[in-house]
């Protein structure tokens, strides 16, 4: 670029001419497109600024209009409220001082009460009720005043003006019923509550009955005549936790009677009159349940003998069982058992070997006997000893006992010898099966004479005994000893 004054070339970036000092003004080259874009941008910015300003002014105008509207409505609202208050006040004043006003009677009654003139107060409320029988407030107030005077019946009768009428709402009737119940409860007249609600078909009374009067408890079994012990249970079936009381002497139960906690066991003959009642948290009692139980045992039930009659071939114990409270006696000689003559059963009996006959009976504490149960047993063990072995066992036993000198049958101080001869099989009652062996003495000349001794050898184990007879002629075993 050249200096416009002296024409000297000006180096790029210099603001003055180095030769003449002339100030150099740089003017950019003109570009129409750029100019147009700049103008458009500036116009848009201006338009946007103008739009915001317009919107701001519009919002301000709307606020002013809203405030004017609120102000106008507020004036109208205040005017209406003031009017309502004035109207309500006028009604209140009218009701308060009108000659026929219910409030007048209640105010006059309250004023008389404060002055100590309770009867005058009650008279005002009675007059108010006569003039306006559907006003429940007067009736409730009247009942309260009667209570203050301790006039229970009059207080209840006042509330019955509501319960016995169709003029009042359901809620008012329920409140009146509960008021009566509260009066009776506080005065302890629970029977009156039951009387009032018990037989009433009024739906409100029925509903309150469910709330205040407990259901009766259930007693099982039912009363009646029984020939055995009876266990009596008493319980509630409605899921409540009401306390149950009972008596067994015929008196009506109450909260001072026996509290039911465990089953009642009737195990002695006689009559038992059990009466029971449920008492709830309000102290109110249910209807009384009354049952008569008669225990007549008669004769005891016969004992049960576990081992049946029959043949047995091994050691066996005889087991007898009877009902609790009874005692078993038995015999083995064929006689009927009694407490005096029988054998008391205390533990299982070892069945005797051979044939045996038992009679069993159960006895109660008064000596009454059950039917007799009989059993016949035949216990025979397997034969393990032969006849020949039995004779040899006998001889060896006699030698060991020094009855014989040797197994040939020699007898000390006697000529000849003894011989032992099997004769038959016998059964000894209560002892089992035996071989019968007789003893003969044989002289040197061969003469054989019976000695009169008879022996018995057990067929099962070879046990040796002398054989004898009892007074009835039955075989009996005699222990061998030296003669």
Task: Fill in the keyword field for this structure.
483 residues; five-stranded mixed beta sheet; Immunoglobulin-like; alpha+beta
Could you characterize what this model shows?
A hairpin with a 5-residue loop joins strand 20 (448-458) and strand 21 (464-469). The termini are far apart. 19% of the residues are buried. The chain has 4 domains: 102-212, Alpha Horseshoe (Serine Threonine Protein Phosphatase 5, Tetratricopeptide repeat), CATH 1.25.40; 218-295, Immunoglobulins (Immunoglobulin-like, Sandwich); 304-379, Sandwich (Immunoglobulin-like); 387-478, no CATH class. It is built from 9 helices and 22 strands. The strands form 6 sheets. The chain has a 5-stranded mixed β-sheet, with no helix packed on it. With 483 residues, the protein is an alpha+beta fold.
The level 1 CATH classification of the largest domain is Mainly Alpha
Spans of at least 5 consecutive residues whose pLDDT stays below 50 are: 90-100
For the secondary structure, the number of strands is 22
Distance between the termini: 180 Å
- Could you give the order of strands across the largest sheet? 2-8-7-4-5
Reported by name, the CATH topology of the largest domain is Serine Threonine Protein Phosphatase 5, Tetratricopeptide repeat
| Helix/strand class | alpha+beta
The residue-averaged pLDDT reads 84
- Calculate Rg over CA atoms: 62 Å
As a percent range, the share of helical residues equals 25-40%
| Main sheet specs | 5 strands, mixed
Shape: elongated
User: Beta-sheet strand percentage?
Assistant: 15-25%
Number of domains: 4
CATH homology superfamily of the largest domain: Tetratricopeptide repeat domain
CATH architecture of the largest domain: Alpha Horseshoe
Q: What is the tally of helical segments?
A: 9
């Amino acid at each position: 670029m050249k200096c416009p004054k002296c024409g000297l070339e000006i180096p790029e970036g210099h603001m003055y001419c180095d030769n003449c000092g002339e100030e150099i003004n740089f003017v950019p080259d003109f570009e129409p497109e750029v100019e147009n874009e700049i103008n458009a941008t500036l116009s848009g910015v201006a338009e946007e600024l103008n739009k915001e300003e317009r919107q701001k002014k519009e919002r301000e105008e709307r606020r002013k209009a809203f405030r004017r509207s609120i102000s106008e409505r507020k004036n109208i609202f205040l005017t209406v409220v003031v009017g309502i208050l004035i109207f309500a006040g006028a009604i209140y004043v009218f009701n308060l001082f009108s000659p026929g006003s219910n409030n007048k009677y209640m105010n006059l009654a309250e004023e008389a009460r404060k002055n100590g003139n309770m009867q005058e107060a009650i008279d005002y409320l009675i007059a108010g009720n006569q003039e306006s029988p559907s006003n429940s407030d007067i009736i409730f107030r009247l009942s309260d005043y009667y209570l203050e005077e301790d006039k229970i019946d009059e207080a209840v009768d006042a509330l019955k003006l509501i319960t016995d009428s169709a003029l009042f709402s359901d809620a008012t009737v329920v409140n009146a019923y509960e008021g009566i119940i509260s009066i009776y409860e506080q005065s302890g007249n629970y029977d009156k509550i039951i009387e009032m609600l018990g037989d009433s078909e009024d739906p409100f009374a029925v509903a309150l009955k469910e709330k205040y009067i407990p259901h009766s408890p259930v007693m099982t079994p039912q009363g009646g005549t029984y020939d055995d012990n009876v266990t009596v249970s008493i319980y509630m079936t409605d899921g409540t936790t009401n306390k149950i009381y009972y008596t067994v002497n015929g008196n009506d139960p109450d909260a001072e009677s026996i509290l039911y906690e465990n089953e009642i066991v009737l195990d002695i003959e006689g009559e038992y009159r059990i009466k029971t009642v449920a008492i709830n948290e309000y102290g109110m009692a249910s209807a009384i349940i009354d049952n008569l139980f008669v225990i007549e045992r008669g004769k005891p039930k016969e004992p049960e003998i576990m081992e049946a009659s029959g043949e047995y071939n091994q050691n066996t114990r005889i087991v007898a069982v009877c009902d609790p409270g009874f005692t078993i006696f038995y015999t083995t000689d064929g006689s009927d058992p009694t407490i005096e003559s029988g054998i008391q059963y205390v533990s299982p009996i070892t069945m005797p070997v051979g044939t045996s006959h038992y009679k069993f009976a159960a006895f109660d504490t008064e000596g009454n006997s059950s039917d007799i149960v009989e059993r016949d047993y035949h216990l025979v063990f397997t034969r393990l000893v032969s006849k020949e072995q039995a004779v040899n066992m006998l001889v060896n036993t006699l030698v060991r006992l020094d009855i014989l000198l040797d197994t040939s049958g020699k007898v000390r101080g006697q000529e000849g010898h003894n011989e032992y001869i099997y004769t038959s099989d016998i059964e000894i009652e209560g002892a089992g099966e035996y071989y019968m062996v007789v003893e003969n003495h044989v002289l040197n000349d061969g003469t054989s004479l019976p000695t009169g001794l008879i022996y018995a050898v057990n067929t099962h184990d070879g046990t040796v005994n002398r054989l004898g007879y009892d007074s009835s002629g039955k075989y009996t075993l005699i222990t061998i000893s030296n003669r």
